[in-house]
Amino acid sequence: MKGGYRAGVGSYERENKPNQQVGASETLETDVNEPEINEFIDQARWLLEYHSKRSDSISTRAVALLGFAGVVLALVARTSVPQGVELGGLLRFFSGLVLVSLVVSAGCSLGALMTRQLKAPAIVQLRRNWWKWSAGKRRGSAASDIAESFLRALELGEQSVLDVAIAEPNSRGRWFRAAAIAMMVSVGSLTVVLIAVYVQLFW
Questions:
Q1: Whole-angstrom Cα distance, residue 134 to residue 27?
Q2: Rg of the chain over CA atoms, in angstroms?
Q3: Chain-centre distance for alpha carbon 37
Q4: Which of 102, 129, 164, 203 is the most buried (most CB within 10 A)?
Q5: Among the listed residues 185, 184, 190, 146, the one whose alpha carbon sits nearest the alpha carbon of residue 44
Q6: How many Cα atoms within 13 Å fall on the side-chain side of residue 70?
Q7: Burial 125-144 (b: 16+ CB within 10 A, else e)
Q8: pTM over 0.85
Q9: Mean pLDDT of each 10-residue bin along the chain, 203 residues long
Q10: 105 and 183 in contact (C-beta within 8 Å)?
Q11: What are phi and psi of 84, to 5 degrees?
């Protein structure tokens, strides 16, 4: 009995010690490719920051252009036609063009400031991966999981956070470009109107 008991204990220990050792090794397990994976993560973070700064820069310029358009529009709306100035067809056309282009410029500036759909690495997926890692099921895969949350290489047909990060400043840039062109048209038309008024008053 005694020997059998010892044998039983020995077999019990032999069956369970490897499991304990596996658990300990899982705690120390690391991804041999983690340094390279971290390079992808760092690049993804840099791209996110770069395009976020692009978006903020365009928004700042759009605010300035919107303010300028508002000031000029208010001044033009309050300006009356001087005595002795005849509003011919050409002068009416350019005066109307000034107002329309100012409104278009202000509207496009607002378009550049509109809030876009925000997209971040999946929080639910991150929590799920953390739960699996804590349970010892995904030890050594943390770096690759984080890289996947940025790049979505397993679902190339879906938008990643980087795709959205690039699309936002590009969209803002198109709106701002249209606003700037409208403002240039407005300034040019206003110049023509002022020259025409000056000619009629002083020549």
A1: 10
A2: 33
A3: 23
A4: 102
A5: 146
A6: 9
A7: eeeebeeebeeeebbebbbb
A8: no
A9: 39 37 38 72 86 92 94 85 79 91 95 73 68 71 75 70 84 95 94 87 78
A10: yes
A11: 95, 0
Residue 196 is encoded by which pair of tokens? 């025409």
Side chain identity at residue 85, one-letter code: V
Distance between terminal CA atoms of the chain?
128
Cα separation, 147 vs 41, whole angstroms: 5
d(CA 114, CA 94): 30
